[in-house]
Amino acid sequence: MTTSDPPNDVHPPHLYPPYASSVKRAPHELLMPLPTALRDHGGPVFSPSRLRPDDHDATRNARVNGEPLGERILVRGRLLDAAGRPVRGALIETWQANAAGRYVHGRDQHDAPLDPNFVGTARMLTDEHGEYELISIRPGAYPWGNHPNAWRPAHIHFSVFGTNFTERLVSQMYFPGDPLLAHDPIYQGIPDPQGQQRLISRFDLNLTEPGWALGYRFDIVLGGQHATPFEDPDHDD
Amino acid sequence: MTRRSSAGPLTPEDSNIPDGAFGPSPSQTVGPYFHQGLVHGFQGYERTAGTVLVDPFSVEAQGVPGERIRLTGHVLDADGEVIPDALIEVWQADASGRYPTDPDAAFSGFARTHTLTADARYEVHTIKPGAAGPDAAPRLLLWVGLRGLLTHLYTVVYFSDEDNSRDAVLRDVPEARRPTLIAQRLDAPGGVTYTFDLRLQGEGETVFFTP
Fold first, then answer.
1. What average pLDDT is seen over chain B?
2. What residue stretches are annotated with the Intradiol ring-cleavage dioxygenases domain (chain B) (predicted)?
C-alpha cells in the first residue's frame, strides 16, 4: 500500500474475514458508484438550537450524584475536508464505554461495573475554525467474541456529518501506544497504514489541564467529493 | 474546575496526523451499541444529550406539505436472518423535490432510526419526496451502518406506485436487480406504508452504492 493508492483504499473493505461479523453481512455484488445526481446534494445541516450547553461534556451531562469514575480527558481537534479546509458548523456525535470498559446498553453483558454518573455520549458542532472539544473519561478496553481472547482497544466512536452525503463518516478514535491495536481486526481492517495512523489520537501535554484532565489531539479528515468513484475492488478479496 | 476557554486556530504541529500522512480518516463500524449515542431516549437516558435527530419534522411541522408515509422493513444477512443492530439514516428532498438547507427548517430531510425493535424492523415517518428533476423519479437515499460493516453502505429507494422508468440513476442499475430498490406501497389502516427490506448478501442482494 502506498500513498499513490486511490483515496477509497483508506476505508476498510466490506468483507474482512478476520472481523467475523463481516462474513455474512458484507455485500458480494460489486458496489455501484454513488450517482453524481445524489453526490452533489448538500447533507443535512443542524441548528445550534438542537444542542444543550453540556452536550459536549460527558463528565457532566449524565451526572446523578457526583463525578464519573476514571481518568478525565479533554479531546480537541479539527474537522477538515479533503483539501484541508475547516468544516464549520458540522455535527459531531460521540459514544463510548465507561472507564471499566462497559457500555450503557442492554446487550453489553461484560462483567464490569456501570457508572451511575456516566453514560458516555456527547455531541457538538464545530466552530468557525472547524474545531471541536470533547470532555470525557478515558474508556476501558473490553472483551468481545470475535476470536479467543479478543479485546477491543480503548476507543471513542465518532459520528460526523460533513457538507454532503459523501462525507458522512462514522469512525473511532484510539489512544497512542495501545498494545491491543496490533490484535484488533476492526482497526487492522484499514488497508492503508497511514489511514490507521490517522485514527490514533496524540497525547498533548500543552492541552492537558493541570490538576484536572489529560489532553489529546484528534483531527478528522473527510473524504468527500475529491475521492474518485469506482467499483469497490475489495468487495470479495 | 472549569474548562479552559477555546484557543485560537490549531497549528499543524498540534495535529495527531503526522506530516506527509494527510488524507481521509478511515471509516470504522458503528458497532452494536450505537443506540447510546445516536438514538434519542435509549433506555430512558433522555437527559444525557440534546434533541437527537431521529425525526425529520420539527415541532412546527404541521403545515409542511406532502404525503405522510412510513418506510419500514427488515435488514437481512446472508442466511435471511434479521439483523437487530442496524442503524438506518434517510436523506431526502421535500415534496417539491428540493433538499432542505436551512438548519431551522420545519422539515430537515434527514431521519435516523434502527432495528433494535420488537421485531427488528426499522420504521421512518416522513413525507414522500418529490422528483428532483425531469430525469428523476421520487427517491430517497438510505444509509446503513451495522456491526460487521467496517464501512457504511448507501442505497437508493424508489416507490412502487411511481413511474420509475424515467430515472437516470435506476436506468444504470442492471434490470434484474432494479426490484431490490423499489419500496412496495401498502395502504394500511394506519396510513400509507412502504415496505423496503435490505438484504446485505446473497439471493436478492440489495444494490448498494459507494461514495
1. 89
2. 71-99
